[in-house]
Specification:
single chain, manganese ion binding, transferase, six-stranded parallel beta sheet
Length: about 575
């Protein structure tokens, strides 16, 4: 048997096993050394290949697709710095628990560390940011090696999905020739290898621990449930039923999937970020215990609130494992399925002695906040908050909002109020970077569901390469671009007072006419300066095919004043009515 046949059967069995194990999508960046895998993926009828030229964009495209579908996505590149360009997306995937199958082609061992081109050290290139690394053997087509390669493919899918999902990395050394021979009989093999077969059950804490937890909380009069970023759309129903029985509020992050859906929202508090900014209000709302589901919420005011309540009992519920508690308070971690835990606590059927004014005060403050936020008007031009509020009002039912970091996600936190529409809110909050946002949104949009990407001008500039995929595959995507000509988030920070260096180091205006970039990538461009105008163009964009970019231009300084005036108005009314 010649080497070309060895190569073909080895790679074909690997790719087929990925398909058997549930892989449906691979994102390929062109290169020579990755030819065997790239061509074989393209040949397999059960796997859809997406060709993205820029490796950094490709990795974030795969990340967005995996986030949207909650299925593993493979990303494939050639050797050398191509693999290094995957790193930002892999870091994000690891921290946000997204399953990626990272496949890097490599030079064979005899061409490493001898000055060969495109040969860097790719062994454990991503360090601890992958759940598993494996250096693949050189291709052979013996029965033993075909079983081996299938085993590694199945294991890659399994490890990426088990427990907390995340990226895995397989490095493939290939010798030339690199072109497979697809004329071989029985190309995809017999699928008779020892594949991984795993049945995962729900984690459930023992009844004795449920009883112990309820007894511990039974006499505590001021409790909170907090829902941070997480992806389960059914959590809202479970936590609101529990909160209703116990008579306590639910602080729901915009990425918790709890603010939208058909579940009861009487106990849900969406406006806490606005009023917890005031120290007196935080002190007034001191709590006895807090149970948090999901990651740490976006709100910095919430972080201050928790830091100031060190004396309270803190519980963090994790589905599998992890330590996501940046306050470093003494915290009890409960490793259990979130919905199962809520059900167990409900079935305990124990009355929790809640302060009768506790929930009422929270709901009153939330009502004041929502009333003021919904009534803001500015005739001259749109503010950033008003633009986001308008978007949230017109998002289609059963669609996804992919939101950028910095000001974008914070305005969503402020203005995303409870709705019966099913809105899946996605964001790259693992590492909180601004890179790869367009590519992530485009990747999410290939699922076929309506996707709206909300981001600022620096995020847009940082990943304009990502627009090529939208053009190439004619992907339907609406982008709301908030352009304050720089890093608007820094205007809220102490650095803003350092006028000598602020603009050059933090404000960083780019002064780009983004209309030309949108036109270059074949998208439709619109601008809006009034609320009604934005409402109309957004509605129209969901009827258009392909890429639609709507730009709203704002002023950073005015934006800071507008937000702070709004927060002050909310806080003063709460202090004068609820806390009088």
């Amino acid at each position: 048997m010649n080497y070309r046949e060895d190569l073909t059967r080895y790679v074909s069995n690997f790719v087929d096993e990925l398909a058997v194990s549930g892989l449906t999508d691979v994102v390929i960046s062109p290169g020579s050394r990755s030819t065997p895998l790239a061509m074989t993926f393209s040949e397999h009828e059960k796997i859809k290949e997406w060709v993205i030229l820029d490796e950094r964009s490709a990795a974030f495209f795969g990340l967005g697709l995996a986030k949207q579908t909650n299925r593993p996505v493979a990303i494939l590149c050639s050797s050398g710095t191509a693999a290094a360009n995957y790193f930002p997306a892999i870091v994000e995937a690891f921290h946000s628990r997204v399953p990626l199958i990272v496949l890097t082609a490599d030079r064979p061992h005899e061409l490493r560390d001898v000055g060969a081109p495109q040969a860097i050290d790719q062994i454990k290139l991503y360090g601890d940011y992958v759940k598993w690394f494996h250096e693949m053997a050189l291709p052979e087509s013996t029965e033993t090696m075909l079983n081996y390669v299938r085993s590694k493919a199945a294991r890659a899918i399994n490890v990426a999905m088990e427990g907390n999902s995340g990226p895995v990395h397989l490095n493939f050394p290939f010798r030339e020739p690199l072109v497979p021979d697809f004329s071989l009989e029985n190309l995809w093999g017999n699928q008779t290898s020892t594949n991984y077969f795993q049945i995962d059950g729900y984690k459930k804490i023992p009844d004795s621990n449920v009883k112990q937890l309820v007894q511990l909380l039974q006499s505590k009069q001021k409790g909170l449930i907090v829902c941070g970023p997480q992806i389960d759309p059914d959590l809202g129903e479970a936590v609101t039923l529990l909160a209703k029985q116990w008579g306590i509020p639910v602080l729901s992050d915009p990425l918790s999937q709890v603010r939208s859906g058909e579940h009861n929202k009487d106990n849900i508090i969406e406006g806490y970020d606005a009023f917890l900014r005031h120290e007196d209000i935080r002190h007034y709302l001191q709590y006895d215990y807090l149970i948090r589901f999901g990651a740490m919420p976006v709100s910095k005011a919430y972080l201050f609130y928790v830091q100031e309540n060190q004396q309270a009992l803190h519980f963090v519920v994790e589905e599998n494992s992890g330590y996501r508690e940046p306050t470093n308070h003494q915290t009890e971690f409960i490793f259990a399925d979130s919905i199962q835990l809520c059900s167990d606590l409900l079935e305990a059927n124990v009355t929790v002695e809640t302060d009768p004014n506790w929930l009422e005060d929270w709901c009153h403050m939330n009502h004041i906040t929502k009333k003021i936020l919904s009534n803001t008007q500015k005739e001259q031009s749109l503010t950033e908050g008003e633009a986001v509020r308008t978007l949230l009002n017109v998002l289609p039912h059963e669609s996804s909002l992919y939101v950028g970091n910095s000001m974008a996600v914070r305005d969503v936190d402020t203005f995303f109020m409870g709705t019966e529409r099913k809105i899946n809110v996605l964001a790259n909050r693992g590492a909180n970077g601004i890179d790869g946002m367009i590519s992530s949104g485009v990747g999410a949009a290939v699922s076929g569901k309506p996707v709206t990407l909300l981001l600022g001008d620096l995020s847009f500039y940082h990943d304009m390469n990502g627009l090529l995929a939208a053009k190439h595959y004619n992907i339907d995507l609406t982008i709301l671009l908030i352009n304050n000509n720089g890093g608007g988030i820094f205007s809220f920070l102490p650095q803003a007072k350092e006028e000598k260096h602020f603009e050059s180091l933090f404000g960083t205006p780019v002064d780009i006419d983004f209309k030309h970039a949108v036109n270059m990538y074949g998208g439709s461009y619109h601008s809006a300066s009034k609320e009604e105008e934005l409402h109309n163009v957004l509605k129209e964009s969901y009827q258009e095919k392909g890429l639609s970019v709507i730009e709203v231009k704002t002023d950073r300084s005015e934006n800071v004043t507008w937000h702070r005036d709004l927060w002050t108005q909310i806080q003063e009314e709460i202090i004068n009515t609820v806390m009088k």
